[in-house]
Amino acid sequence: MLPLEKGKKFGASVSFSTIEIKEYPIIAGDNPAVTMGAPITIDWIPFSDEKCTVDDYEERRPYPRSMVELRMLSTYRMQLLRSLGFTREEVRKSIKAANITRNHRKRTNEITALSRVQENLEIMTRAMLNVTIRRRAKKREKLIMNSYLLNKKVIDDSRSSVTTRDTSGSSSILITNQ
Question: Which parts of the sequence are annotated with region: Disordered (predicted)?
Answer without folding.
Answer: 159-178
